[in-house]
Amino acid sequence: MALAILEMKSRFKHPGEIKVGVIGYGGAFNMGRMHLQDMMKAGMTPRAVAEPDAARLAVAAQEFPGIQTYASVTEMLRKSDVNLVVLITPHNTHAPLALQCVKAGRHVVCEKPFAITTQECDAMIAAAKKAGVMVSAFHNRHWDGSILKALEVVRSGAIGDLVRVEGHMGQWGKPGDWWRSSKSISGGVLYDWGVHVLEYTLQLVNSEIEEVAGFARHGYWAPQTKWGRDTVEDEGFAVVRFKNGVWATLCMTNIDANPKRGMVEVTGTKGSFWWDYENHEIIVRDGDRTVVTKGRNPPAQWEKYYANVAAHLVKGVPLVITAEWARRPIHILDLAGRSAKQGKALKARYR
């Protein structure tokens, strides 16, 4: 094993030498297939799938003829020569599985969120540095058309100096029976889509994090759901204060009978920019006039994630989504959860 780890510390000659495996296949949104296909497009070679569900393993073998299939992660790490492992599993398994794979000398990509706590992120980063391998999080939405357009608008000065970023998603409705509705498994109501919105925010706000205040309402839906007291919060809310004076809010809710327009709204001194999945609006004050410009979001460029990973492993190109970058939104979520319990804002350790 020591020899294998040593070999993987050196760079690959070309992307085809990067043999990839996924842990988890099928379940939510056929993500195992998607990841393998996206890595193939970046030139990497699908090699193995680890999945305890025999039916899903059979589908993987059919969709990727010749791929190795394993019923457990331990078996895959022992028998397969995969260099890069992608974790497509529930949130609370990301840190323990990543640590297992890193200690076996494999590079690791975690589906978002990177982990649930700051402490877990720290352990993953330390283990990866010790083993000389890469750890990253699959923040493909770093290249969503909406955020690329928002960055263009903010950097152009069209809405003036940045003042605040507001993220809000949700509706009025009982959480479902799947694992994302379990707080202990998912991390809470803020973790699923909330980590995407926070990552958008961190792209827009070029400043250090000063402190985080969190708020949570729990108990309305819990008696009516499969998970009982372990059900995610009815609503979670976080306020982030940045060193440059900008602030950001994040609201994820299951009790909003009047859902807000759009997913994210960015406010500047001259106007605002908001977007949803498909559309955006730029609202600017021009003297006594309000000028509204509507548009469709440009296409996403998700392929850039694995293209960057391959270029990093082959050519040493800087990694865009580093483990330290992926830790930032988790640190905010972790602080927000602890702040909600303590009833006070908490200072950020990682800026």
Describe the protein.
This protein is an alpha/beta fold and 351 residues long. It has two domains: 2-138, Rossmann fold (3-Layer(aba) Sandwich); 142-299 and 330-347, Dihydrodipicolinate Reductase, domain 2 (2-Layer Sandwich). Helix content is 34%, strand content 25%. It contains eleven helices and 15 strands. The protein has helices at residues 2-9, 31-41, 54-63, 73-79, 94-103, 118-131, 145-156, 183-186, 194-204, 303-315, 323-342; strands at 19-23, 45-50, 68-70, 84-87, 107-111, 135-138, 162-170, 209-217, 235-242, 247-253, 264-268, 271-275, 279-286, 289-296, 346-347. A nine-stranded mixed β-sheet has the order 14-13-12-11-7-10-9-8-15. The protein has a six-stranded parallel β-sheet with strand order 3-2-1-4-5-6, sandwiched between helices. Helix 5 runs parallel beside helix 6, helix 6 packs antiparallel against helix 11 and helix 9 (194-204) packs across helix 11. The model is unreliable at 1-8 (pLDDT under 50).
